């Protein structure tokens, strides 16, 4: 073999052999499935040595980071469900540390576990209400967004109470609390419309960059379960949590945004209840009068089609079409009532637009938006000065059967 060719062959071989120099074996990974961020309480301590902590720089706040890591050997069929660190056979353990930054806290945790934290399989990030109200959400998210291992599909939630308590729930039918929480957030697609859509890290990053007001779903620990419902409303200028929206207000928000799916709406007919369920997406149209920017007018027109899923009132729809119209009108009135309740809360109390009117104006009236955008829901707050009306139209496609064993009643 020529000497030159031999040198090139050796060089190529060295390049290929060095391709896995920084590989970490899977057995050495600490798989993180959930994380929680709180402010530390009295008794929560960091992991730095006392002599190192004396003169080092400190941030405005110290954070308590809790990670939920998988115990691979306990994920077998016979492993116990529930539990936590220190209980033999559990499929996970939670570990916490205090630090001035997320990165510092993460590295301190790495010094205490046998496997370095590995984030690509993380499902849930929970931030406490206290932290959310402090305005430090962007600081916290900076660490998770910069981490090259972090996937943009991680779901973000705000906890009512301490975030680490949520990761400490002990579900009956799941080995990992974080996976249980992840599954519960997906149930909203086929259950109650009062459950908000999940918010993922990638979407939150966009909201933080646009500086528009936004919402994040609420979660609360309840023993062996979690309760998900309502949303935290954030002011986009300072990215600080302002207030909660409750279940009915979240449904009203979904109606206004045209995102309501599978929502069950109860109405009174006679002395009993009738339950209506939307089928498919509702249709939302907005008509605007922007002739006076100090008093802009918006009309939301909502159209919904659905079915009667349950009726405690005996109604003969076939022989009395007027009853059919009555039910449709009452469902429409109920949708309008919930939407208007949400408008009052957002426009008069919070004075924040999470309905999407800012996006509507920016897309359809860009010249106007240039003059009012900086003062839309802060400063001059044109949003709070605007007049919002709601119109609703409902079509019942399938009223269901009639219970002939009960006498028909007049409304």
Automatic annotation (TrEMBL):
Keyword Cytoplasm included in the entry's annotation: no
UniProt subcellular location: Membrane
Membrane topology summary: Lipid-anchor
Domain of life: Bacteria
Domain Spore germination GerAC-like C-terminal: 230-400
Family annotation (Pfam families): Spore_GerAC, Spore_GerAC_N
Residues passing through the membrane, by range: none
Database matches in InterPro entries: GerAC_N, Spore_GerAC-like, Spore_GerAC-like_C, Spore_GerAC_C_sf
Chief place of localization: membrane
Family of the protein in this entry: Belongs to the GerABKC lipoprotein family.
PANTHER family given in the database record: SPORE GERMINATION PROTEIN B3
The protein's name: Spore germination protein
Native organism: Ammoniphilus resinae
């Amino acid at each position: 073999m020529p000497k030159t060719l031999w040198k090139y062959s050796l060089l190529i071989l060295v390049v290929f052999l060095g391709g896995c120099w920084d590989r970490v074996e899977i057995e050495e990974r600490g798989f993180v499935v959930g994380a929680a961020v709180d402010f530390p309480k009295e008794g929560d301590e960091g992991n730095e040595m006392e002599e190192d902590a004396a003169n080092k720089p400190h941030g405005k706040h110290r954070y308590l980071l809790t990670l939920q890591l998988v115990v691979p050997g306990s994920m077998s069929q016979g492993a116990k469900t529930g539990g936590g660190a220190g209980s033999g056979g559990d499929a996970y353990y939670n570990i916490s540390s205090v630090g001035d930054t997320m990165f510092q806290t993460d590295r301190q945790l790495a010094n205490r576990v046998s496997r370095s934290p590995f984030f690509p399989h993380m499902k849930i990030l929970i931030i406490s209400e206290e932290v959310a109200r402090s305005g430090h959400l962007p600081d916290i998210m900076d660490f998770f967004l910069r981490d090259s291992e972090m996937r943009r599909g991680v779901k973000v939630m705000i906890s009512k109470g301490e975030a680490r308590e949520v990761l400490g729930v002990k579900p009956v039918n799941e080995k990992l609390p974080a996976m249980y929480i992840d599954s519960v957030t997906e149930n909203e697609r086929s259950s109650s419309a009062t459950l908000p859509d999940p918010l993922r890290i990638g979407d939150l990053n966009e909201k933080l960059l646009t500086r528009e007001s936004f919402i994040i779903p609420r979660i609360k620990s309840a023993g062996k379960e979690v309760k998900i419902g309502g949303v935290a409303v954030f002011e986009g200028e300072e990215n600080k949590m302002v207030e909660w929206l409750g279940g009915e207000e979240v449904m009203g928000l979904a109606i206004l945004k045209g995102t309501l799916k599978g929502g069950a709406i109860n109405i009174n007919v006679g002395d009993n209840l009738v339950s209506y369920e939307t089928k498919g997406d509702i249709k939302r149209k907005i008509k605007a009068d922007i002739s006076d920017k100090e008093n802009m007018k918006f009309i939301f027109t909502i159209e919904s089609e659905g079915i009667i899923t349950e009726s405690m009132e005996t109604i003969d729809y076939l022989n009395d079409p007027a009853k059919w119209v009555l039910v449709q009108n009452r469902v429409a009135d109920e949708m309008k009532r919930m939407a208007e309740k949400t408008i009052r809360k957002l426009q008069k109390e919070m004075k924040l637009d999470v309905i999407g009117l800012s996006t509507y104006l920016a897309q359809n009236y860009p010249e106007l938006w240039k003059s009012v955008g900086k003062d839309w829901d802060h400063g001059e707050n044109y949003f709070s000065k605007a007049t919002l009306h709601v119109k609703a139209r409902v079509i019942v496609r399938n009223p269901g059967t009639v219970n002939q064993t009960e006498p028909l009643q007049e409304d």
